[in-house]
């Protein structure tokens, strides 16, 4: 099996690349020159590792609605995902994968409740994503990928492997100009167009901080409860996929601002994933910056919580080009 080659970097390196204007806009503290962030050396990233032949890249790049002699626009080339990721570990129970040529990405989050039993709470999320990735790798090239079918097969295979734990998961695939999804729980995604939020998945949870989750015994919440759907996407749209370590720490409006500013500054998917993860990490460690997690806690539990939520943070950014 081909493997994604991880890139190792530190959060301090990422921190330096968060523009000051963005820092100010999001109300983050001023950068300290010699800051050594806790968790440094624990950031792993991937960039799309399945490079297309340069001729195909040129075809895709030339997708500017060519006009024929009659003045009619020719059909656009299918979109593809130029993706990259950043994973800041806390307990190391998140997992993800992506395949550029197949246009498929996935993110999963092992539910930490199992940890106290001395069980590897990341085994099920890693099993899900490894299985899904292997299925994409071994599929006939050009075969359309149905995210629900892929998630269902990955789930069955992971249960059969006797992996421990529970996990939320989201898988998305491109089919022409449709972006399809299947997800269970609060692993989530957002699609941005022209710097504005176009679509955001709705978390599935039973109560505060208790998302729907698949488990290793094949019992509990059912795969058939997965939310499935699709939206029409187009050239230039930006997809952000992540675990709750992202979405419980960064408000949608701030993520929108990050994407808008990153796009204006010409960020690559890699740089955008790093900066979004860096911001999420900074909020996660804060005891005062407000977050969706604290806001929900105040609303749903009636407490006075402030600050972020420390968790594994997975951010995957795909430019649809
Ligand atoms: Mn999490």
Automatic annotation (TrEMBL):
Annotated coiled-coil segments of the chain = none
Keyword annotations for this protein, in alphabetical order, are: Hydrolase, Magnesium, Manganese, Metal-binding, Protein phosphatase
User: At the top level of its lineage, which domain of life is listed?
Assistant: Eukaryota
Under the heading PROSITE patterns, the entry gives: PPM_2 (PS51746)
Q: Residues annotated as region Disordered?
A: 53-75, 285-306
Catalysed reaction(s) here are: O-phospho-L-seryl-[protein] + H2O = L-seryl-[protein] + phosphate; O-phospho-L-threonyl-[protein] + H2O = L-threonyl-[protein] + phosphate
Q: What is its EC number?
A: 3.1.3.16
Q: Which cofactor does the UniProt annotation name?
A: Mg(2+); Mn(2+)
- One GO molecular-function entry: metal ion binding
Residue ranges under compositional bias (Low complexity)?
285-295
Q: Does the keyword Hydrolase apply?
A: yes
| Domain PPM-type phosphatase per the UniProt entry, residue ranges | 69-320
Protein's UniProt keywords contain Hydrolase? yes
Q: Which family does it belong to?
A: Belongs to the PP2C family.
User: What name goes with this protein?
Assistant: Protein phosphatase
